Amino acid sequence: MHELGIATEIVNATVKAAAAHGAERVSAVAVEVGALQLVDVEALCAAFAAAAAGTLAAGARLDVREVPLQAVCRVCGTTYAPAIDDYQCPRCHAADPEFVAGNDIMLMSIDLETAEEQQGEPH
Ligand SMILES: [Zn+2]
Questions:
Q1: How far is the CA of 27 from the centre of ligand 1 (A)?
Q2: How far is the CA of 85 from the centre of ligand 1 (A)?
Q3: In this structure, which of 28, 41, 57, 72 has its CB flanked by the most CB atoms within 10 Å?
Q4: Which residues have CB under 8 Å from 42's CB, separation 6+?
Q5: Ligand 1 mean position to 80 CA, how many Å?
Q6: Phi and psi dihedrals of 111, rounded to 5?
């Protein structure tokens, strides 16, 4: 399952960041998922919950923002939004795009809870 591999990577990166900040737990994680990844958001959230179980990220909310695909034609330089199954440039009809957005998965932010914050002590 494609989503489980992605979710595992998100959890690994999240747990690493949480540990580096001495967090007690993770309350929310925000990711941007490119359209080219063909990710099923519901499946990704379910996979994230499963992968996070037993880690610092257990029970964290996963906010997924889908990023539309955007490409620049390597032949004529036109910027366009290709379809998932049709990369052809609308201007010169070459199918040689460089994807500039929507082709990867990025961890945008992680909300952490530390012991100090839970007790309301000043930093
Ligand atoms: Zn072109």
A1: 44
A2: 17
A3: 57
A4: none
A5: 9
A6: -95, 120
For domain 2-67+102-119, give its CATH number from 3.40.50.720, 3.90.110.10, 3.30.2320.50, 3.40.50.300.
Answer: 3.30.2320.50
Least confident of 32-36, 60-64, 111-115: 111-115
Could you please report the per-residue DSSP string of 73-119? ETTT--EE--BTTB---TTT----EEEEESSSEEEEEEEEE-HHHHH
Task: Check if the beta carbon of residue 89 is closer than 8 Å to that of residue 95.
Answer: yes
Q: Cα(89) to centroid of ligand 1, in Å?
A: 5
Query: Mind listing the pLDDT tens digit for each residue in 77-99?
Result: 999 999 888 999 999 999 999 99
Domain ranges of the chain: 2-67+102-119
pTM over 0.85: no
Q: Are 44 and 64 in contact (CB under 8 A)?
A: yes
